[in-house]
Amino acid sequence: MEKTYIEEKTFDKTDFSVNILPKGEYEKCTFNNCNFLSSDLSGINFAECTFNSCNLSMATITKTAFKDVKFKDCKMLGLHFDRCNDFLFAIDIENCQLNLSSFYKMKLKKTKFKNSNLHEVDFSEADLGQALFENCDLIRAIFQNTVLEKTDFRTSYNYSIDPELNKLKKAKFSAAGVVGLLDKYDIEID
């Protein structure tokens, strides 16, 4: 069975929860206002693609490849990126809702998360070295045995990171954000 190869195509307002996206490779494609709610995207390769204002919530992304893919203004609830193809995995997240998703044990060096909600996202055992969390809400995000060396949290908030359970060498925090490093001690800071 031949795989579909699509290059430099724009998909506008397509409901892929009804019209299934054909399995294959998508290179330099743009998806605008598309609905992937609970879609099966398993085994699909996305290279240098952009998703704008799409709903990818609860999509199945087992063995899916995201190579230099940008997500902007997207709803992405409950995604298991830890099940993706990790070869050349690279994403940028901007203005997205990425709540309840998992990056367990993933290599995410230099990944950019901007102006996004990352509520209850699992970053356990991930490598987030030199990543940027710019103005992100990290309430109940899980950082356990996570590499956070040179990671920038200066403008993000609501995180709780245990310095004893994570690698934080040269990580960047604002003075106000240091409170998130002391949560486990249950102390009051004025």
Verbal overview:
This protein has strands at residues 4-7, 10-12, 24-27, 30-32, 45-47, 50-52, 65-67, 69-72, 91-94, 112-114, 132-134. The protein is mostly beta strands. The protein is elongated and about 60 Å long.
Order of SSEs: EEEEEEEEEEE
CATH superfamily placement of the largest domain? E3 ubiquitin-protein ligase SopA
The biggest beta sheet reads:
7 strands, parallel
Compute the separation of the termini in Å.
64 Å
Strand tally is 11
In the CATH hierarchy, the third-tier topology of the largest domain is known as Pectate Lyase C-like
Count structural domains.
Answer: 2
Widest β-sheet, arrangement of strands: 2-4-6-8-9-10-11
- Give the CATH level 1 class of the largest domain: Mainly Beta
Please state the structural category.
mainly beta
Helix proportion range = under 10%
The fraction of residues assigned to DSSP E strands is: 15-25%
Q: What's the shape?
A: elongated
Query: Over all CA atoms, what is the radius of gyration?
Result: 17 Å
The residue-averaged pLDDT reads 95
Unreliable stretches (pLDDT < 50, length at least 5) are none
Number of helices: 0
Could you say what the CATH architecture of the largest domain is?
3 Solenoid
